[in-house]
Amino acid sequence: MPVLLVTNDDGVHAAGLAALAGALEDLGEVHVLAPEREQSACGHALTLHRPLSVHRWGERRTSVNGTPSDCVNLGVLGFLPERPVLVVSGINHGSNLGDDVTYSGTVSAAMEGTLLGVPSIAISLVEGDELEAAARVARQVAMRVLVSGLPPMTLLNVNVPAGTPKGVRLTRLGHRVYSGKIVEQADPRGRAHYWIGAGPPAWEALDGTDMGAVHDGYASVTPLDLDLTHHRALAQMTDWEPALNAALRARPREPAKPASRAKPGKRRRR
Ligand code: MN
Question: Cβ(41)–Cβ(15) under 8 Å?
Answer without folding.
Answer: no
